[in-house]
Amino acid sequence: MSLAHGILGLLNYGDMSGYDLAKAFNSSLRFFWHAQNSQIYLTLDKLEKQGLITHNLVIQTGRPNKKVYSITEAGKDEFFSWLAGNTDTKYEIKSTFLMRIFFAGNISKEQSISMLKRFIKDCRSFLQEMDTVPAYIEEYAQIAPDNAPLYWQFTADFGRRYVNMCIDWAENCIRKLGEPL
Prior knowledge:
The protein is mainly alpha-helical.
């Protein structure tokens, strides 16, 4: 998957401003696809140059004007072609944290344990953030096809289970390093 396909997928639900897209990513897709606001805006420009989206400028009083983006027919074709494709089903992960763990034999055991404890703390914070997901699913369900929220729940469930597994794994690593929890 690419950021572009995520944006096309969201615009397929309805027109959105860049701010709306960033908010949608932050409240839903970020659990499995992180995108910074700057990346979203750069990708919007690229998609527009490719003719996959267009925008209308909305003039606002007392606030900056905003661009509201729409998916084009070519954009829908690209999105549905990607969605129906038989690629990208293998499991892949990129993790700076796991790279650090791989090489942690080069630092003290105490530093490694500290790193793992910070990871657990971050995972627990992430789980608390995930408590807001049901409300976002309900909010965005109003602009989506009837069955879309079910699939959103599938990805949220994956995220919750994955993070719980990460906590369990990190606690196990700490025990193997000889420190009780």
